[in-house]
């Protein structure tokens, strides 16, 4: 079970008291009346979904009820920071103890494949790497 620190209550509580509320620091685009349908849909539904450090909103639903932000690693679920809504994201050393080497090929086969510079998984594409018959 995860322990989540509410920056308003100033204590760590079990994750069951909280509800994930999506990506943090998402702002509404300016002049929405000039956007086409595709741009509106993208602003509403498309999120970054990073593998690694993510900044996300949480709500202490069974506590103070307030929204706050957290910096979490999406693979390890380790939280690196908690901060109040409206505050700027803290600077986080992404190389701390979550180096990509920890998740590279062979390091932990049970973890998702290492992402390349394009964001696509490294390794053979579908159909490649199979022996010709
Ligand atoms: Zn709270």
TrEMBL record:
Recorded superkingdom: Bacteria
The protein's name: Sarcosine oxidase subunit delta
